[in-house]
Amino acid sequence: MKMKQGRKEKRYKSLFQRIVSFTTLVAGFTLLCGLGAILLSTPAVAANSPLLGVIRWDCFSNSTCADLNSLGPQQYHDRVPYFLSMDSSTQVSGNENSQSTIDQQIQYAHNAGIDYWAFVSGPDTSPNVAEAYALHKYLTSDYKEDLDFSVIIHRYNAQQTWSQRVDQMVEWFKEPTYVKVLGDRPLVYIFNVADMETYYGSGTPTQTNIDLLRQKTVDAGLGDPYIVAMHWQLNTAVSQLNKYGLDAIGRYGYSGLNGSQDMNNPSPFSALAQAQADSWDDYANSGKPFVPDISTGWDKSPRTTTPPPWGGGGGPYYEQPTPSEIAGHFKAGMDYARNHTTAVEANTVLAFAWNEVCEGGWLVPTHAQGTERLDAIKAMLNGVGVNALRNPGFEADMVGSQSAKSWSTWEGSSGTHANADYTEPGGNSWSWRLTHNKSAAYEVATHQTVTGLTNGLYTLSAWVQSSGGQTTAQMSVKDYGAAERIRTITASSTWQQIQLQHVPVSNGQAKIVFYSNAGANQWIRVDDVSFFKETY
């Protein structure tokens, strides 16, 4: 059954397959430097866990995308994806128009435990169209087996006849990585069936189009498509399902019930999350199968400040969630699907979104947060809670940096060794790592204090490498209400995980420290640091 592959078979590819794929990509980027760690660290998820899908709306394949202008003001630079450039306080530029960028995003999504992308698919599916570019690059990627895909049918015009468009979709359905549910049924979302009615005509013409999609798919030897009527309003989605014999209902995004209309005084994300969670019962009580939607946020401030040609700004506005809030909401949605198998018969949820940054919903790594949102989802799927640390994988800068974001540097007793700690390519499970090294003898510490902790037992862990030979190379935790706990970092040319377990936090805080007192060219490398509250 295809929907099990996303969680099981595809998570356990042979090392040989990964090495072969890796050699084709290493010149383009350094994401996969820790191959063994990727194999070991991919989330382990229960067999009945619902598929986690995430929406992709691809504007940034085009360097003239209007959303680049909306992201221009500096107050919105915290949501700029890592593959774009912030040229000034008023300008953002760039695109994701390369195979290596799409390959890298596939690996980001896969390593976090995402099962599939749902690509918004417009009326022209040719590969030179911006909205379709990322999908075509996905299909030619050496890494596509790590991440499944489906499509959201959206917009209609004369660039392709409906029959031509169906032929293209059937070819996609044949792909081994296209999402199949309930046996061999390709999962298809239709965004607002009324748009199809507007272009082709209500009633018989639209019914004929949907029947053609079903018939051509079955004629190709595949299962009857599982078609989800996607609309902002529940009653409209139900009406569309009933009118055209569709299979389920769903929603693209959710803006809440009574969110703030004041851009400068947004409502808390918790209000949005709670209202969305409450709405899942409304969908289940409709008596129609549905796909629960999970939000990563809602805030169209960039488009309010600098509207694109199609408009789309305005409230409500919500504060951007913390990574832990996102992970908690994802867990709630996946738990709901797991506990309502009749209503959620396709065993999938759909998140808004991978890259809707101008609407306030994203998981794609950004310059400001790096992979923190993905890190939190990965931790949730692994069942270990939420990492208390910020920038635990040293990805937030998305470039080599002398001082890792969210971490501080102690320059040694002499106060002259700040340049001995820095981030560089070659991480364990992502692209970047922390390194202590210098061409002369040095002493340096990299540290982060976390506050607001719930008292209890915690585990500190990190993946490390070391040249060996240092006077001291260690990881420690202190200022948590008891004596400092220390773990020595021993010599190793490969990544090894070290831990300090059962740290009894009693004052709501802790200071995490990596310390080196070393000779010239003696080094340690650190990545994937975590500080979790123990649940056993």
Automatic annotation (TrEMBL):
Name by which UniProt lists this protein: CBM-cenC domain-containing protein
Region (Disordered): 291-314
Lineage of source species: Bacteria, Bacillati, Bacillota, Bacilli, Bacillales
Organism per entry: Paenibacillus silvestris
Record-linked PANTHER family: GLYCOSYLTRANSFERASE, RHAMNAN SYNTHESIS F
InterPro entries listed in its UniProt record: Galactose-bd-like_sf, WbsX
Pfam families according to UniProt: Glyco_tran_WbsX
Xref: Gene3D superfamilies: Galactose-binding domain-like (2.60.120.260), Glycosidases (3.20.20.80)
Superkingdom of the organism of origin: Bacteria
Coiled-coil segments: none
